[in-house]
Predict the structure.
Amino acid sequence: MNAVIKTPVSDPHSWWGETLRRIARSKLNLFCIAVVLTHMGVAFYGEVEYLRHRIRDTTPAYNQVNLEQRLLAPSLFRARIAGPDGGKPSALRHLVTHPLGTDSLGRDVLQRLVQGARIAFRVGIITSLIAIPIGVILGCLAGYFGGRTDDVIVWVYSTFASIPGLLFILAIAMVVGQGLLGVYLGIGLTTWVGLCRLLRGEVIKHKTLPYVQAARALGLGSARIIFRHILPNVFHIVIVTFSIRFPAAVGTEVILSFLGIGVRGEPSWGIMISNARLQLWQGIWWEITSVTVAIFFLVLAFNILGDALRDALDPRLRDQQG
Amino acid sequence: MLRYILRRVLQMIPTVLGVILVTFILFNVVGGSQARVVLGEHASTRTLEEYDEVRGFNRPLLFGWWTTTRALEDSGFDGGAGVWKGMEGVLYRLPEGSLPGRIGLPPGRSYSVPFALPLRDDTDYRFTLVYRTAPGSESAAVVSSGSPPGPDEPATTSEVHRVALAATHQWKTVHVPVVPGAPGFSPSLHFEVEKTDIEIREVRLRRKMPSPFHSQFIFYLGQIARLDFGESSSTNQKVSHMLREGIVPSLTLTVPIFVVGLVVAVSLSLVCAFFRNRFIDRFFVVLSVGLMSINYLIFIIVGQYLLAFKWEWFPVWGYESWRYLLLPVVIGVVSGLGANVRFYRTVVLDEMYRDYVRTAFAKGVSKRSVLFRHVLKNAMVPILTNVVIAIPFLYTGSLLLESFFGIPGLGYLAINAIHSADIDVIRAIVLIGSILFVVANLITDLSYAVVDPRVKFQ
């Protein structure tokens, strides 16, 4: 039966408090939360930096070309170079200038990596803001009303589900035009189907439960029953879906901008990979390694947290674990 | 059974129609003609028009008599005077307050804009213009698409082309017929302004279709019915021919990836289930989460660099013998392994807690026998669903692997088509991929019904 209804008022922990407590039991989960928060902080810093340079109309560090310092290895892997005044920099100074090296145009890899995180978060969040509301609203309506509404919505999502995913996204991005808007719409408009399907099934189950029948007997309106009564009880699905689709959207964005459909003039991770790919063949390993590591930890953290959230939020599993 | 098959086939039709509709909306309604992108900024109006003619883009979208033509650029004057700019005597007025941008034609002279391409004489056209005049005068101007009658010519021959504009100080919309087939026609828009100033807000030229059903949508449906997917704008080959050429290389790559991937993933998941919660199980779980977190591109780039370029185990690029396929297949299998092992492990473990398994153990059946003779057979049902559903995606090939390793399949084709805005190719690949998916779904459902008769009554 449903855990939310059974949660007694006297329970010292709130629903969310309890969930957090369950997740925090594992050190691995805490580590993942830290990784996600770090990326988030870095992305926020990147956003501030980006806006600052846009308002002042200056060239940001991540686009600053410096051909004298091109292809510098990360500071741990290179000898100290003399500064413009001829004196050798101190060891600490050496470590913090271009700590991850520079690319073929002498742009700082770390700064570009930060901007990549900014774009990854933008894509993850904005595509979720497009896909999740579509999925939630259509899924709830189809499940609750059934009949003709259900037929139409099922028809729409089975149509979307039959179109090959990456091609569909590429086609939308191409048609909408180059730039991030195409990426947002491409990913956002194609990835709501899974959530919609799950919610529809879940709402159909909840519709027959006593608490919904009671709400109906009280004469509450459909909208209120759906969004105030049923939705909170199935909301864990939305959260778990978010944690799964976020890293997927980041990965797709990387592929799109690698293919040249996506951001222009700003360093996204995909663009960095695309630049670094040819250099790798000349033995320049640091740019591609930095990007790989950054993506790896972000996606890994989301994957593990997604599992943890599912275990902690699913009412059935939750009751079993006690 | 027959009735079930029939019902299920009928259910397929709306989805196929939906896919056709979605591709139409995407490429025709939202996208529209890519003539500018494909042919470049310097293409002549005539080549642009020909591009649209071949692809049906110069027709009404769904239904209608009138369609646009490039012979005369649509002019609303909010952004500037357009083709009227710099013409002698023409005054341009910027939008101000509630007044839109407009051009003013002072009286006592004539103005003429030639058409950018010859009109067809098998159909009619018309101008639509929105104008007003300074108050006071009776007749204001004559708008025409023919030369004024010569002294020895009867006035009636060119009457067809000439329409007098009445004076009005409110904005007024008039339609002026243009008949390219009639004698005395001249390929230009011509104003003779008589006594008062005239202001024009909007000028449009529209072509009349032979019937309102000559629309883009019907054209598209016709293409699908004839299985003719048009012509590629970058290679000028037939799209259907390109698809046929591409399918074999794609399948030689995707089928081995699929089969090897499936066998490896299912075997590993059985190993995990057999050694549940022991070191080997934990190791594979961690490994698969790790593999899932590495971006697909990285597998390809690093694999190609290390295995083919640096260590020279495999050829780097090309499609000449089976050896060229080895590396892409290895990369394809490894990159998909993480997600697959996790999925199949869950499926197998789900079965492990069923009653029949407990019974089998209680009878004293060995663990290996339970796993391979009981559990695997039952786990086959969800595994097969997953497998059949994945089959249609084999057709579109692997977009990235093919372009990285130079395998001339459909994925390679699709990526090139996207880069060159080759609409016909992308639309055909998307459409056929989707229809195959729908068909595969149908086959899965029908085979379920064969295996499990209860399905029919749901």
Summary: Chain B touches chain A at residues 14-15, 18-19, 21-22, 26-27, 30-31, 289-290, 292-298, 301-302, 305, 309, 392-393, 396, 399-400, 414-415, 418-419, 421, 426-427, 429-430, 433-435, 437-438, 441 (CB under 8 Å).
